[in-house]
Amino acid sequence: MQTLPNPATVKSSSGELSTDTTIHRRQTRPIQVGNVTIGGSHPVVVQSMINEDTLDIDGSVAAIRRLHEIGCEIVRVTVPSMAHAQALAEIKQKLYASYQPVPIVADVHHNGMKIALEVAKHIDKVRINPGLYVFEKPKSNRTDYSQTEFEEIGDKIRQTLEPLVVCLRDQGKAMRIGVNHGSLAERMLFTYGDTPEGMVESALEFIRICESLDFRNLVISLKASRVPVMIAANRLMVKRMNELGMDYPLHLGVTEAGDGEYGRIKSTAGIGTLLAEGIGDTIRVSLTEAPEKEIPVCYSILQSLGLRKTMVEYVACPSCGRTLFNLEEVLHKVREATKHLTGLDIAVMGCIVNGPGEMADADYGYVGKQPGYISLYRGREEIKRVPEDRGVEELINLIKADDRWVDP
Question: Biased composition, Polar residues: where in the chain (predicted)?
Fold first, then answer.
């Protein structure tokens, strides 16, 4: 397996070196989760997680549906008990009867083999945390781990993990090995420290057990609440997988990112950095807000990097003394009128100085050329000049004339 460098240096038609602006994604094996594929040549998949207690059958069904309807492609639920695991059977049945199949991932923690085996009957993918799956309560007086102790716990992990691996393997289902920086097992902390190396080795231990049982329907995640740790861990994971001939897809996320503007910026800094390097096959933005608020952030990250196009791309100048209209107000009007469309680039530019050049790649342009009038462009071509108060209306008419308009 090869991870291509990004950006790549290529020869232009004139023979000079130029920079390739395409993100070359790491080549990974495709993993099927219900009717969605993670990895391979498939688009980066968007995920989120419901807040509802899984024992609330109707509430969980409604929450899963809400997320799926706005573009969440895989939905995660928590299963802290056997009762929760059993409830998933009814959730899945009601979801299918009232809506449609939605890929569901079940989160299993704390000595969860029995729960995981039950939940594996009902859903498409099980997520386990290596630091908690076989949970050993830390000893306050411990100073180190002997090699014998380390291996004894490793044997216990294998015995506990094997039934789940076999169950998923035989059903053709998937597993996410989800390592969290904040919940590394004590023996990993003593051996590797509270480091990206400890996170990677924790994942590799579980991967090797799965591979020894001929199970490779795996997605790997290494999450941290600190962006530099999350980035370093994923880069190191890719390096180690390359060395070991592994091609498992990666799930990216900054865990416990918080809320509001900073939570979004923090998530974008971590997820976007790795995606720009070609690393990552599925993402979740973890906000301390309603799960539905996570999905637009995911798509904005993917669209800004050119990895998916799911909405209108707006190009707008920052405004200056040359601007001939209230740019912020007009951009808002244009966005409100066209935000339901997909696959278009629309530029709103305040003046003629930079407008046509800066918006050259846009499908449509809305440019201030003289006071009180708007010039509308199709690509680089000026189509018509209209009074400012009719600018948005005439932009819509131009899109309609090109048969690229759909009603909201």
Answer: 1-21
What separation, in Å, do the N-terminal and C-terminal C-alpha atoms of the chain show?
Answer: 44
User: Cβ atoms within 10 A of the Cβ of 408, count?
Assistant: 7
Q: pLDDT tens digits, residue range 283-299?
A: 999 999 999 999 999 99
- Dist. CA 109–CA 130, nearest whole Å: 9
Which residue do the tokens 């419901």 mark? Answer: 50
The continuous run of DSSP H or E covering 273 comes out as: helix 260-276
Sequence-ordered list of residues with C-beta below 8 angstroms from that of 383, at least 6 positions apart, any chain: 376, 377, 398
210 belongs to an annotated ligand binding site: no
DSSP 104-146: EEEEE-SS-HHHHHHHTTTSSEEEE-HHHHT--PPPTT-----
Structure tokens at 248: 């498992």
pLDDT digits 0-9 by tens, 186-241: 888 888 989 999 999 999 999 999 999 999 999 999 999 999 999 999 999 999 99
- Indicate the Cα dihedral angle 156, 159, 161, 162, nearest 10°: 160
Contact 255, 224 (CB under 8 A): yes
Backbone φ and ψ for 224, nearest 5 degrees, come out as -150, 160
Q: How do 17-19 and 9-11 pair as beta strands?
A: antiparallel
Q: Is 358 annotated as a binding residue?
A: yes
pLDDT digits (tens, 9 = 90+) for 10-32: 444 455 555 777 899 999 999 99
Q: Is 351 annotated as a binding residue?
A: yes
Which residue matches tokens 């007009």? Answer: 330
72 belongs to an annotated ligand binding site:
no
At which residue do the structure tokens 């600190």 appear? 226
Structure tokens at 88: 């998933």
